## 1
Amino acid sequence: MKYNDLTVEKNTRPARKGRGISAGQGKTAGRGTKGQKARTGHRKMPAGFMGGQRAIMQAVPKLKGFKSHHAKAEVVYTDRLNELSGKVDNYTLAEAELITSPFVKVKVITRGELTSKIDLETQFASKTAVDAITKAGGSFKQVAILQRPGK
């Protein structure tokens, strides 16, 4: 026989509460005197029950509105693209400080005139922005969001 093969059992019985005054836990059996919690079945109250008044879940105000955890695309306007030329992607836009990081979603939106010929490769572009790019002699290609290295 090994020590870890031993079966350990309690050698004390549960206390028999409420079996007379001399029994140690007699009369009120540790429930105090009177009140809802002294009665039989008081453990079956629903969670948040507050003695018949409004439950705690109803009393606490709820948050208004809706919080979206969906990351929003960063916006780049077409008139800011005049500074760039050739192939323009997330890395180029991040170097020109038009977006915060090359690993974010980018949407190009029309504003002002686009004069430089660019080959744009971003995640999104409005229809009018694509028209402005092709009118200036460039092209638009939709690409997936760039993943960070090591992910």
## 2
Amino acid sequence: MSEVRKDSYKFCQDICIPCYETDAAFYLKPAAFMDMAQEIAYWAAQMLGFGYDDLHVHHVAWVLSRMHFHFENPPKWRDEVILKTWHKGAGGLFYLRDFELLSPQGEPLVTCTSSWVVIDERTRHFVRPDEMQHLLHIDGTVDDAIVEPAPKVVLPRDGEGEPCGEHVVAYSDIDILGHTNNARYVVWAMDAVDYETVSSHRVKDVYINFNRETTPGETVHLFRLRREEEGNLACYVEGRVDGKSAFCVKIVY
């Protein structure tokens, strides 16, 4: 994996897909894409002057709130790819950032849009964009990897999610902010779908909402629901702590 470089308003990184980020069919796992996107987002923000270190001295931090990524043609083990990201400015409470994973010829492999918030590290409360103008000087762009912002995801009200296990948050789940890393929720969600489905169907879209953070020792109870939507199989997985939603994922096959 190479260093992050700037190309106009986009930040780019050359990556060779490693074996440990792929499944039994050699395709890039959804959670692996999230890991790569999160890392380049941190570097891009740092290079623009509002990265983790810049905000930490003011006791605030970036937190991913929503994400939607679409698999056009997922890369496989040993494929050479180019990951790009760029800021799209603020929209309401959110700051919008898009990503695209491309072949060396420029063909889209994965497209993604994400919505971020800033939180106060001491209170864990949201900090509104108008309160951050002195720290965040962001020139947004109209370029879109995915036009519509990542939507809110909830379990459909016309169905009931069935219990499908639980997960106790542990060392391997925790990130630099002391709570569960974003990609781990997608790992839990993919594991909650039966193996026959995930191994025989190609993922088309992943939508995820992060509703509250989870921390070491907490037990996350998982619920799933599957149904047909517009000719596709949609699998919803929600994680709850003390009866309240911590996250909800929708995986479309």
